[in-house]
């Protein structure tokens, strides 16, 4: 039997990239998928592909920066599937700029779409994850915070590190409720990665050269399948961890 048979997974930002890869992988293990994002056309692509493969999925259009829309999105998922077993917080607006050029609007967008949206969704989903008895939360963070030189990436690292600390707090506070909470720090061949490579080709090439496996991970095969394992009973004693899914590039020790 598939490891996630009949479980319900709510995944933000699943219309493309890493979120989409996670959605495909979890669906492949039998989970019913709710993909959440702002662009309906992208969500529909993910849903159609899951259905083409024989899985079950719905699209829920919502701006994760809007608290009232998040509440409505969770209600839609529960109404459609009867509960929530897995929450994956993937969506994030990324503020990348030197500090002197960083606008407050960009920083606020990173904060609202990152740690604030993550906390809101964790709290909204908590009663459903608790009721499940096997609840899982996976929050996506970044190895940018592990750089020796964080020039230009300070704001991005800051909002993602806030998410990582919320992850640890939830792991400590909610394990007694039957909920495991972990963070992954992925390196995936997403549209965001492609855009960064196009904008900063020399920097991107130098970065990839530091990956021991000498390649960027595939969104479904490398990152999605790892998440499917992480939220399965095969990892039932893993809680509160930050795990690099990046071919060995970052040392978190």
UniProtKB/TrEMBL annotation:
Keywords: Oxidoreductase. It holds the Pfam family adh_short_C2. Transmembrane segments: none annotated. The keyword Oxidoreductase applies. It comes from the Bacteria. The keyword Lipoprotein does not apply. GO terms for molecular function: oxidoreductase activity. Belongs to the short-chain dehydrogenases/reductases (SDR) family. This is NAD(P)-dependent dehydrogenase, short-chain alcohol dehydrogenase family. It comes from Hydrocarboniphaga daqingensis. The lineage of its organism: Bacteria, Pseudomonadati, Pseudomonadota, Gammaproteobacteria, Nevskiales.
